[in-house]
């Protein structure tokens, strides 16, 4: 069986794509980021809850505030990337549900009135959206460098002081630079992962 997606697109999104470690200084525009979001916003989340929130770090001040909370090995590439996105879960996502899930607007109170429930559901669904976002960056012909090496508590306080968001990932974005890629790491094979019962 063949996939509906052509081979070039499969390569762009998956087979040839890797986590970029270096980038050129070519800027990433707001229009490019909007095009990425306008594509990936259609990917599924439970109850269409869409809890991912994105902070684009462009200014030198914001970049400095971000870099100081990154793990030491992630600091130079985060400082040099043309654009950095902080991807976070909005734990108050339920406030948007009457608009996002209009055929059952009561879902906001029926399922998500309690904060611990929202945190669990929001974190899972926002993590799905992080994956969609990375694929969207690749679909735009850009490279993504997703990272989880940072002081999460400090980043939350720095960029989301109201306490309603939790950082899930920081993603460097741009055109790949010199020596951007490590060799492809091995993957598990189909029969190591899939069991038919």
Keywords:
197 residues; alpha+beta; 4-stranded antiparallel β-sheet; 40% helix
Structure description:
The protein is an alpha+beta fold. It has a four-stranded antiparallel β-sheet with strand order 1-2-4-3. The longest helix is centred in the middle third of the chain and has 25 residues.
Note the beta-strand portion.
Answer: 5-15%
User: How confident is the prediction overall: mean pLDDT?
Assistant: 96
Spatial gap, N to C terminus: 21 Å
The succession of helices and strands, N to C, reads HHEHHEHHHEHEH
Please tally the helical runs, counting DSSP H or I stretches of 4 or more residues. 9
Shape: globular
Radius of gyration: 18 Å
Order of neighbouring strands in the sheet with most strands: 1-2-4-3
Low-confidence stretches: none
The total strand number stands at: 4
- Biggest sheet statistics: 4 strands, antiparallel
Structural class: alpha+beta
Helix amount, in percent? 40-55%
Short description:
It contains 9 helices and 4 strands; from the N terminus they run H-H-E-H-H-E-H-H-H-E-H-E-H.
Which secondary structure elements does this structure contain, and how are they paired or packed?
Layout: H1 7-15, H2 30-40, E1 52-57, H3 60-67, H4 75-80, E2 83-90, H5 97-100, H6 107-110, H7 115-139, E3 143-147, H8 152-159, E4 165-174, H9 190-193
Antiparallel strand pairs: 1-2, 2-4, 3-4
Helix pairs in contact: 1-7, 2-7
């Amino acid at each position: 069986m063949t996939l509906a997606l052509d081979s070039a697109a499969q390569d762009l999104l998956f087979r040839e794509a890797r986590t970029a470690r270096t980038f050129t200084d070519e800027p990433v525009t707001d229009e490019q980021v909007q095009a990425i979001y306008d594509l990936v916003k259609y990917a599924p989340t439970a109850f269409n809850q869409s809890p991912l929130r994105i902070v684009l770090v462009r200014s030198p001040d914001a970049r400095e505030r971000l870099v100081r909370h990154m793990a030491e090995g992630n600091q130079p590439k985060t400082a040099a990337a043309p654009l950095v996105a902080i991807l976070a879960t909005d734990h108050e996502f339920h406030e948007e549900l009457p608009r996002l899930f209009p055929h059952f607007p009561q879902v906001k109170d029926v399922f998500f009135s309690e904060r611990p429930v929202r945190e669990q559901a929001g974190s899972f669904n926002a993590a799905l959206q992080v994956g969609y976002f990375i694929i969207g960056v690749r679909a735009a012909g850009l490279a993504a460098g997703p990272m989880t090496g940072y002081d999460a508590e400090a980043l939350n306080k720095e960029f989301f002081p109201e306490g309603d968001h939790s950082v899930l990932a920081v993603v460097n974005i741009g055109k790949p630079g010199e020596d951007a890629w490590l060799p492809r790491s091995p993957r598990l094979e189909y029969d190591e992962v899939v069991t038919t019962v």
